[in-house]
Amino acid sequence: MYEFDYHTPQTLADARSLLSGRDDPKLLAGGQTLLPTMKQRLAAPSDLIDLRKIADLAGIARDGDKLRIGAMTRHAAVAGSEVVKQAIPALARLAGGIGDPLVRHRGTLGGSIANNDPSADYPAACLGLGATIVTDRREIAADDFFLGMFETALEEDEIITAVAFPVPQKAGYAKFPNPASRYAMVGVFVAQTGGTVRVAVTGAAPGVFRVGEMEAALASDFSAQAIADIAVPSEGLLEDLHGSAEYRANLVTVMAKRAVQSVL
């Protein structure tokens, strides 16, 4: 690990000031990706700006048909929250299946979506629920936020403050986890909100994506059988020692059916 300066701002304004006044600063949320990368000397920020002491960035609250979760809220807090369990049970279950207890008690919602690992769980929830990512300067629809592998619409000095999730009529999530990392080899989040159904897939491709054919089928018949014969093309999907592109394509249909079954 290379030398760096460490900061613990107490307010969002202090964090913004530090970001704009340093050579190559990085925000530290849960640190589950950034710190291992620094230990391997694959990243060498001049400054680490730790957001954990900014109280306004954590917390869970429901306001009507919206569930707002602060960016610094830990996965374990989402998984154990009675507010989340009542509003969006599938989101609580998703959070409870992230990594291991250590990761869940250190990792954060904001850190996860800002990093946008192609196998992370939260991007599927954000896209599947049609969430809005709130930053210190604007609001970004999930459809516009996730741009590709480890790439988002965030500016270099922009800070995620919260995510606003619409409360759906029903939602489900199912993933096939890597047995070692617990990252999703394929995870599918299905949600019905109003008259709209969204199906979001993580782990299968370089970025989270929606499956329009499944959405249309479920809008007419919200059942596992309705999507049983819908296949996702394998072209462009990830391929590694854990599974081929064809294997992941098949898993998309399998996990989508399980996500729907978890609702029913």
Describe this structure in words.
The protein is of the alpha+beta class. Among the domains are: 1-48, Uridine Diphospho-n-acetylenolpyruvylglucosamine Reductase, domain 2 (2-Layer Sandwich), CATH 3.30.43; 170-263, Enolase-like, domain 1 (2-Layer Sandwich). Helices cover 33% and strands 25% of the residues. It is built from eleven helices and 14 strands. It has helices spanning 12-20, 34-39, 75-80, 82-87, 89-96, 101-106, 109-115, 122-129, 142-145, 212-220, 245-263; strands spanning 5-7, 25-28, 47-50, 60-63, 66-70, 132-135, 139-141, 146-148, 151-152, 160-166, 170-177, 184-193, 196-202, 209-210. Strands 4-5-10-6-7 form a five-stranded antiparallel sheet. The longest helix has 19 residues, at 245-263. The radius of gyration is 18 Å and the shape is globular.
- What do the pLDDT scores average to? 95
Broad CATH class of the domain at 170-263: Alpha Beta
- Say what the CATH topology of the domain at 170-263 is: Enolase-like, domain 1
**How much of the residues is beta strand, in percent?**
25-35%
Number of helices: 11
Question: Which secondary-structure class do the elements indicate?
Answer: alpha+beta
Largest sheet: 5 strands, antiparallel
CATH architecture of the domain at 170-263: 2-Layer Sandwich
The 3D shape can be described as globular
Sequence of secondary-structure elements: EHEHEEEHHHHHHEEHEEEEEEEHH
Largest beta sheet: strand ordering: 4-5-10-6-7
Helix proportion range? 25-40%
Radius of gyration: 18 Å
Number of strands: 14
**Looking at this structure, what is the CATH superfamily of the domain at 170-263?**
CO dehydrogenase flavoprotein, C-terminal domain
**Distance, first to last CA:** 49 Å
Poorly predicted runs: none
